[in-house]
Amino acid sequence: MKISNETKVGTLAAITITILILGFNFLKGTNLTERNDTIYAVFPDIQGLTPSNGVYINGMQVGRVKELRESDKDLSGIIVSFSLNKDINIPKNSVATINSDFLGSTSMEIILGSNRADFVKKGDTLQSSSKMGMMAEISKSLNPAINNINSALTALETLIQKLNATLDTDTKNNLQHTIASLSSSTRALDKMIQAQSVTLGNTLGHVEKITGTIARNSGKIDSAIGHLEKTSAHLADANFEETLQSVVKTMNKLETTLSLVNSKEGSIGMLLNDRKLYDELRMTNRSLTTLLDDFRLHPKRYVSVSVFGKKAKGEPLMQPIYDSIPGK
To answer: Which pLDDT does position 41 carry in this prediction?
Structure first.
């Protein structure tokens, strides 16, 4: 079957018109292929809201603005109609607000209410709340600061005028000279700091080297500290009190012994302190030495044995031999 050119043109025109209608409605915020429940809200100021702006709940877009119209001739309010393209339960006590970001784009936001028993239906009107835009909030925050700055500038200007009126020519010249001297001193200080910067750099380098050396030997330092801690612990554990008491007891006993030695009551004391006993012991030792010398020289005098022959005659020794040797 052959299709005529007129049919083709008519079909193309119908498709074009359909696309135009769908596109126009889409730009108006109406999507014919999705849910389009229209809901209303009344605002005293729409803050630049336009049709096709998004409608958001918790940051998610759920619809678009369809139409804006005045509520009366006095323009006491503006009726905003918007369509929802998602099946969402919106409590009737929810509130619609208009948001404006820093770049100037505007959108509508629905703050969900707490009444989960009754939900908004098609054609209902939500409560609205005016929310100050970001630029308005910034301006509101900056206005007090700007006013304070303006007041400070005005006061400063007044002060300068009064200062100029008070100072005479000589005072102004002196002030200028002082400022010039201060500037010269600042330059001299700057030069001095630059001249000493090299020395300061070298000093910091030495400090860095010392710090590096300490860091490299940190293990040895830790080990030494550990040994010191162990030594301190051993010294702390040592029972110095008992040792000291033992030493004191020993010293007391030694002192008692020396006291007995120095006194004349004990044997050692009598030996050390009795001169008569010393002389008797000395004479006894001398006599014994004399006897032994005589026995060695004249054994026959004391032992009568034929091996030695006849009995020795003569007087016995009366003193030790070493006493009779010259030079002894």
So the answer is: 92
